[in-house]
Every structure is written in C-alpha cells, then in structure tokens.
Known about the structure:
About 70% of the residues lie in helices and about 0% in strands. By secondary structure, the protein is an all-alpha fold. The protein is globular, with a radius of gyration of 15 Å. The protein starts with a helix and ends in a 9-residue tail after the last helix.
Amino acid sequence: MALSAADRQKVTDQLMRDNEAPLGPMTKAELRTAVNATDQWIDDNQASWIATLPANVASATTAVQKTWIFAYVLMMRINKLRIEGD
Length: 86
C-alpha cells in the first residue's frame, strides 16, 4: 500500500507549505528523501505493527481500516485530529 511517486511528491509539497511545523534547514531533495524513507519504513514494518493489534482486530479489518487507526493515532500525536465535542 505504498504511496505512488506522485503521492510522495504531494506529501513533500504539502509539508513545504505547512507553516505549523517548520522543517528547518533542509533542501527540497532532502525532504523528499525523508518522505520516501518514511513511506518505505511503514511498508517494511507493517507486519510487526499488525502483530501487536488484538487478533480479532487484525483479522477482521481491511488494510485501509488498519491504516485509518494508524493515521488517527499519528494525527492525535501532533494535535491535528479534530474530535467532536472538543
């Protein structure tokens, strides 16, 4: 479920536009390399993460549903998850 080259570029471009999290002194090429490495790490480590999920969740959810869980936890960590009632 790795991102396409075009999607990796979209992520890179959005990170360059996002002023909430300045990325410091790095070149566009270095940022793109970091995006590529992160996407690859997710692919490389997906199985070990899924192994930590409760067995019924791991077996009863699709890859997309598992990715939503992962993404929501990440978004909460950087205060980007909009929670109803907050």
